[in-house]
Design goal:
Deoxyribonuclease I, Chain A, alpha+beta, 25% strand, two-stranded antiparallel sheet, 121 residues, Endo/exonu/phosph_ase_sf, 2 helices, binds 2-acetamido-2-deoxy-beta-D-glucopyranose
Length: 121
């Protein structure tokens, strides 16, 4: 979901998009395509744009807590490519390294799948 925001005290509008990505890697590919396409859309060009939410995908292999899953998989590659193909950048964050875990006390797995991407124009 995307909306254009204009603050009463500011003339320039900015665009905010909220994402809750599919659990399915193949379905997420259309989100990456939409994000790349929308980044050059007239409704966004020359405006600040932020996309935030649950992308259901880690961006970097080191965000998995388990060493075994540190190699770059297809899902990570797709997300990274999307950011390389668009002017979107990953906003710096503070706080927890991971935003999701699989609730296994004995053999936990955690990832950072929630983030904020921005274009500052
Ligand atoms: C949790 O993640 C770990 C590491 O990826 C995995 O070995 C384990 O099977 C997962 N457990 C559940 C319940 O998904």
């Amino acid at each position: 979901m995307s909306c254009e925001v204009t603050l009463p005290s500011h003339q320039s509008a900015f665009v905010v998009s909220f994402v809750y990505a599919s659990n399915c890697e193949i379905e997420r590919r259309s989100l990456w395509e939409d994000m790349t396409t929308f980044s050059s859309d007239q409704r966004v060009v020359n405006k600040a744009w932020t996309i935030l939410g649950d992308f259901n995908q880690a961006l970097n292999p080191e965000y998995h807590s388990i060493i075994d899953s540190q190699r770059i998989n297809r899902g990570t590659h797709d997300f990274k490519s999307c950011l390389l193909d668009s002017p979107l950048v990953d906003l710096t964050y503070k706080g927890s390294t991971y935003t999701w875990w699989n609730m296994s006390e004995s053999n936990p797995g955690a990832k950072k799948i929630d983030r904020v991407l921005v274009i500052v124009n």
